[in-house]
Amino acid sequence: MYPTIIDFGPVGIHSYGLMLATAFITSVFVIQYELKRRGFVPDVAATIVVAAAIGGIVGAKVYAALLDGRITLSELISTSGLVWYGGFIGGFLGILIVIVRSPNPTLATIDIIGPTLLLGYGIGRIGCLLAGDGDYGPPSDLPWAMAFPNGTVPTDERVHPTPIYETLISFTFFGILWSQRRKLEVNPGVLLGASLILLGVERFFVEFWRLTPRVLGWMTAAQLFSIAAFIAGIIIIFWARSRPPVAATAETVEATERSESPKQSSPSRKRRRRR
Fold it and tell me: Which regions of the chain does DSSP assign to beta strands (E)?
């Protein structure tokens, strides 16, 4: 594993930080593309991702401190303890503040963010794998089991590479939502609900192959949060489907672009017949 890609002495380029930056940059492009496709203001994409990053880091640190029972200044400013669900709550609050203040429709814009969470999460887990930061699972003799002797949290024993599981599942779920987004976007809120359901399903099952402390019987805190996300997603979908659907914007935007294009609006230009 490669926790540090390039070392400049006191500072360096770390694999986890690099993949985290990759996740944020990728999310900006995806959100911007979707905002533009749906006829919304695309310039807020970068602001949304920055708010998600700041809120996510703050939320993750506060959540980790609450779990440890130590809410101290050193705990909050340390580089460890970035808990996913704490980051999700903080990041979502940051995103919500930006979207509400933007000229875009709130619920439809949040719909765009939902699938992007799965994509960014999957990319971030590649950083966990490269860093060997302890997110791996219990010992295993499976052919794909891995050891992390040079990881941030090293182990010479072959274990379940759970970051790989999470990346593959997250990318798969993102692909499903991305392929169905045009159908689901006619009911604003459905994509958000579906994203919460799939995020909950992904983390709930992967927790069985992670070395996470159990807090309620055989369940971890992440599994309890996964159940809450799953239930919230179902409620949001039912609520969204009870509201009147909106017209699909993709075809409207495309038609508008065609009508405003000087090349295609010229009456003298003839369409070529395919041979």
Answer: 4-7, 12-14, 146-148, 155-159, 214-216, 219-220
